[in-house]
Specification:
Blueprint (H helix, E strand, L loop, with lengths): L2 H20 L2 E2 L2 H4 L2 E8 L4 E8 L1 H6 L3 E12 L4 E5 L17 E6 L12 E10 L9 E8 L1
Parallel strand pairs: 1-4, 6-8
Antiparallel strand pairs: 2-3, 4-5, 4-7, 5-6, 7-8
């Protein structure tokens, strides 16, 4: 292989790798708090629930690669269902002391190796998904979540 081709291939891989790393935008809980809440009736549940009206800034982040740090809350360890919270468990959304914008569901790309403890602080990367209508999931979901 010529030096020019070798240089091109090497440069391409280095550039691609740096772009992959750089694509994860760091966000924080103040960013996710840029949402207003209204009420909406869901016929299938016969229930009125809080319904998000995301800010333009948050809407623009939908489906983007992000990185966020928070407190781990193991909801169902056996099934691998964890959420990341802006607050420790004692003052999280599930205990009634914070809003739904303060939790983010972690959907892992592969099964976890080991477990996380309640209130362990961790950083995750993945694709942010905004959820309006699936009441079985959080309003914020981190798809393909990977610990950093």
């Amino acid at each position: 292989m010529s030096r020019a081709i070798t240089f091109f291939v090497f440069t391409f891989f280095i550039f691609s790798a740096s772009q992959t790393i750089a694509q994860h935008k760091k966000i924080d809980w103040a960013f996710l708090a840029k949402v207003e809440w209204g009420e909406k009736y869901f016929e299938e549940y016969d229930e009125v629930v809080w319904y998000p009206k995301y800010s333009k800034e948050v809407l623009a982040a939908d489906s983007s690669l992000v990185e966020i740090q928070g407190y781990i809350i193991p909801v169902d360890v056996e099934s691998g269902y964890y959420v990341l919270s802006a607050n420790p468990f004692a003052s999280c959304f599930f205990c009634g002391n914070a809003g739904p914008e303060s939790v983010l569901e972690l959907q892992f790309s592969e099964p976890l190796k080991g477990t996380y403890n309640t209130d362990e602080i961790a950083t995750f990367q993945g694709r942010l998904k905004l959820n309006w209508d699936d009441l079985e999931h959080c309003n914020y979901i981190l798809q393909n979540a990977k610990p950093k």
